[in-house]
Design brief:
Length: 430
Amino acid sequence: PKSPTNKKVSNSRRDSIYDYKSEAAKKVELIAKNRDERRQRQADEKAQKDLIMHLEQNNPYWEFSQMIRDFRNGIDFRPLREHDPVVENQITVCVRKRPLNDKEDRRKEVDVITVNTKNQLIVHEPKHKVDLTKYLENQNFRFDYVFDDSCSNDIVYKFTAKPLVKTIFEGGMATCFAYGQTGSGKTHTMGGEFRGKQQNFRNGIYGLVAVDVFKLLNHQKYAQKNYMVSASFFEIYGKLVFDLLAKKQRLRVLEDGKQQVQVVGLTEKIVSKVEDVIDLIQKGSMERTSGQTSANSNSSRSHAVFQIILRKSGSKHVDGKFSLIDLAGNERGADTNKSNRQTRIEGADINKSLLALKECIRALGRKGAHLPFRGSKLTQVLRDSFIGEKSRTCMIALISPGNFSVDHSLNTLRYADRVKELIATDSPED
Ligand code: ADP
Ligand code: MG
């Protein structure tokens, strides 16, 4: 008689035969799999070797690039966002990093600047040990704000010059400086974005300030003050001053007995709408670059000063002034041992003016500090902007991201750091 137990046995026997076959099949499969994996591994290793060879031939910085990528993968990013709070400082110092440009891309340069938070950045300096192994020297910096390469002029403006516009309506002086190496983005930031050789003067800091000046002029809070707006635009080239609104006419700077500094004969055009200001910016910018042999030969060696002035109608007294300065390339300050005498003198002048500027800004933050404004033509003509408790200033330090520029970028960051010493921390919230 069939019992349920018997059935079970026969079933299990069938299973075990089946298992036996499958064990053999599995072994064969495993051998095949191991062989495939080994081949794949060898192929991968070869591909990796080929890739490394290819990279070494095509990109000498690939290892640094890899190290920077690893670094970035290991940290949290909390960049500045448009609606982050704007802090009201007497002195604001910030940094803007531009994207790598075509020229840097063609040279296969590596982006050595990491902007990790709204106010900090890291410079990855490529270095070699004595045995030639490569390593990165990472340095942290902290400023009031750090703008990464995705920020537009509008965002930069919002956190830098915009909060200073009301200052000039309240009896104060305002200044905004663009500092950095030639090609780092000073003119792009101050004058407007370039599209090829065309510049959009509407989205530079000069133009954006003009828009807000006219907005406040008509604001009920200030309308009864009857302010009249005018603008001037000049260039400081060594010890010489040229009027950019009068065919680069040379101007003299005089200081009277009361230490009042005057640029004699400087053109000051009355403006009644934004459009008038844009026309002046365009005119002056063209004048600045006219007659240049290459894109940045002369303008990189001069400081351009654009000013918007407020006066009561019919009065000579200046009630408020906003000076916007596109500084000479700071690398020119290092041209002090060039064989060409002219270049050497220019370099020394630029160096002197940038050092004097730094000291004047630092003095602004310390009541009663000595103001070394006679140290250069630049600080001399800006003297009245460095005095008075209501004066405010903003420095935008511009940096190029490529590894070829790392020394210049470090110089720029150290300078900006000295203008306003903030302590870099590891905590992104500080
Ligand atoms: P500088 O005045 O400091 O010598 P420029 O403002 O002339 O430098 O900039 C050099 C080049 O880099 C220009 O072609 C400019 O359009 C480009 N550039 C600068 N900053 C930026 C940016 N933030 N985004 C895109 N391009 C930029
Ligand atoms: Mg420029």
